[in-house]
Design goal:
Blueprint (H helix, E strand, L loop, with lengths): L2 H13 L10 E5 L2 E4 L4 E4 L2 H4 L8 H13 L11 H13 L3 E6 L2 H16 L6 E5 L8 H6 L16 E4 L4 H7 L4 E6 L2 E2 L5 E2 L2 H14 L2 E5 L14 H4 L5 E4 L10 E6 H4 L15 H16 L2 H20 L5 E7 L2 E6 L4 H9 L2 E2 L1 E3 L3 E4 L7 H23 L3
Helix pairs in contact: 3-11, 4-11, 12-14, 13-14
């Protein structure tokens, strides 16, 4: 191990709160590749968990960041910068909705924005409860934890913020039953990410939309992970043809520069009047410049076309490989958000891939998650799939030997 690796590990152990347990130290990235501190090259099919959607150090984003860093990094939101409004205009135009945008800094904060808009709307008629989905993940702040449908994230941080209930995902009857006179909104991910790469059924989403219209509820979509081109459309909802009332974004929005955003239909957006919501860094010039460069790249580099073509190719190749192994149940997902579903824990399989220098994620307990940069090539997928095959074969042998 390199000296910098040893030093970094020691520094983390001594000074950094132990919320993560990282083992790799990366020092450089380019496209779908990362290099560790020993100079070893890895194929990155995590994109920093669906963040670096255009790959590491994309030239347009790098140029935007460096140029903006020389010009103006930040002024408070009590003043204007010209970039955030230009970005808002672009996001609204791409959404096709009559909407407005609020900028913040992370996925959890964007979801807090969704929750606050829903409460502000509902409280006008005495309603402030939100129904979210089992298995969902919405963030680590207290409000978004209460919306999150997996108890393990909340444990130890009780009491839960009140006003949230969860129902099974893709089950319209359960949702109907859960609605009370206090309900003001329904919140969901169109493809559940952390929960196991589980796509919503189109028919279900249409029914949710109709139910929200009928009962005067806001349909809130968390696009933090599945948005920003990941499903092959700019917004995740466009892949399903069902338009929500408000959408949260983060992760890929600025390709790695921290930024979040809420986009809400005008009638709801305008409820957040002066002084009712805010955040110091929201829409800061540096992040907005990076996000505009991301949009520019979508406009000029056929990123979505590549996502659709490579998503189909990766799904097909994983499905074919999976058929060789009894413990692989199949492949699910959309675009370049794909899960290899196992009948056992996914973490050991992930480790075997990492050993061969392919970085992937797990999701739920039993899913190996593939979220490569949207610019991934056929050759990179072929390399990755060959590693997946080798890792599955090794895992198969281990299982047969009773390890
Ligand atoms: C669907 C979804 N929502 C919200 C979040 C929270 O985002 P952040 O970690 O930026 O707060 C995540 C993070 O993984 C996510 O996947």
């Amino acid at each position: 191990m390199s000296a910098i690796y040893e030093k970094t590990v020691k520094r983390i152990e001594a000074n950094v709160m132990p919320t993560y347990a990282p083992k790799q130290l990366f020092v450089r990235g380019e496209g779908c590749r990362l290099w560790d501190s020993d100079g070893e090259e890895y194929l990155d099919f995590t994109s920093g968990i669906a963040v670096c959607n255009l790959g590491h150090c994309h030239p347009r984003v790098t140029a935007a960041i460096t140029g903006q860093a020389r010009t103006l990094v930040h002024v408070s939101n009590i003043y204007m910068n010209a970039l955030a409004p230009a970005l808002a205009e672009k996001l609204v135009a791409e959404s096709g909705l009559d909407a407005k945008v609020f900028f913040c800094n992370s996925g959890a904060e964007a979801n807090e924005g969704l929750i606050k808009i829903a409460r502000k709307y509902g409280n006008q008629t005495g309603r402030n409860e939100i129904i979210s989905m089992e298995n969902s993940f919405h963030g680590r702040t207290l409000g978004t934890l209460a919306a999150t449908g997996r108890k393990k994230y909340r444990q130890g941080f009780e009491p839960d913020v009140p006003g949230f209930t969860q129902v099974p995902f893709n089950d319209i009857e359960a949702l109907k039953k859960a609605i009370t006179p206090k309900t003001c909104a329904v919140m969901l991910e169109m493809v559940q990410g952390e929960g196991g790469v589980i796509p919503a059924d189109v028919e279900y989403l249409k029914q949710v939309r109709a139910l929200c219209d009928e009962k005067d509820l806001l349909m809130l979509c968390d696009e933090v992970q599945c948005g920003m081109g990941r499903l092959g459309t700019r917004f995740a909802f466009q892949s399903f043809g069902v338009a929500p009332d408000a959408i949260s974004m983060a992760k890929g929005i600025a390709n790695g520069v921290p930024m979040g955003a809420v986009l809400a239909r005008r009638e709801f957006a305008d409820l957040l009047t002066v002084g009712t919501h805010g955040t110091t860094f929201g829409g800061t010039a540096l992040a907005a410049a990076a996000a505009l460069a991301v949009q520019d790249t979508f406009d000029h580099e056929k990123v979505l076309e590549n996502c659709n073509a490579m998503g189909a190719y990766l799904a097909e190749r994983l499905t074919a490989i999976g058929k060789k192994y009894s413990f692989v149940k199949g492949v699910r997902g959309k675009g370049l958000m794909l899960g290899l579903v196992l009948d056992c824990e996914a973490a050991p399989v992930q480790k075997l891939m990492q050993k061969r220098k392919l970085l992937v994620l797990t999701a739920g307990e039993c899913v190996v998650r593939f979220v490569p940069p949207l610019i991934v090539t056929r050759e990179e997928i072929d390399r990755a799939v060959a590693i997946v095959d080798e890792a599955l074969a090794e895992f198969d042998t281990e299982r047969k030997n009773g390890k």
